[in-house]
Amino acid sequence: MSLNKVWVEAAKTEDIPEDGGACVLLNGKQIAIFHLKSKDQWYACDNLCKHKMQSVLSRGILGDHHGEPKIACPLHKKSYSLLTGKNLNGEDYAVEIYPVKMEGGLLYVELAEG
Ligand code: FES
Question: Total domain count for the chain?
């Protein structure tokens, strides 16, 4: 199994709503990208909420958990840290998160190669 990581062009910055998210398909996988305007930061995680396996996190609600950015699923409000992917409701599932970088108005997400 390859552990090499590559930066993949994901979206234009204007494609992601301020204080909101959008879903992009990268390497066959749905990735949710978020723009937290107050911190001028970008985050990415799997679009799939592990609670009921629904691909909805890009439509979730951005928030803050003791200074840590989080996304709350729009269906049953389970929350995940956007720094670690950890479930913040004390449940034992998590989502995968991905580094995001912005260059020249484009957003890149770092994914495992292949
Ligand atoms: S499917 Fe996301 S909280 Fe239930």
Answer: 1
Ligand 1 mutation target, pool 45, 46, 47, 54, most atoms within 8 A of CB: 54
C-alpha span between 105 and 102 (Å, rounded): 6
Chain segment 45-103, per-residue pLDDT in tens: 999 999 999 999 999 999 999 999 999 999 999 999 999 999 999 999 999 999 999 99
Burial of 1 from C-beta contacts in 10 A (0-12 / 13-18 / 19+): exposed
Q: How far is the CA of 1 from the centre of ligand 1 (A)?
A: 30
The enclosing domain of 61 has a CATH number of: 2.102.10.10
* Residue ranges around ligand 1 (CB below 6 Å): 49, 51-52, 54, 73, 75-76, 78
Model pTM above 0.90? yes
Determine the structural domain holding residue 13 and report its residue range.
5-112
Closest residue by Cα to residue 47 from 80, 14, 17: 80
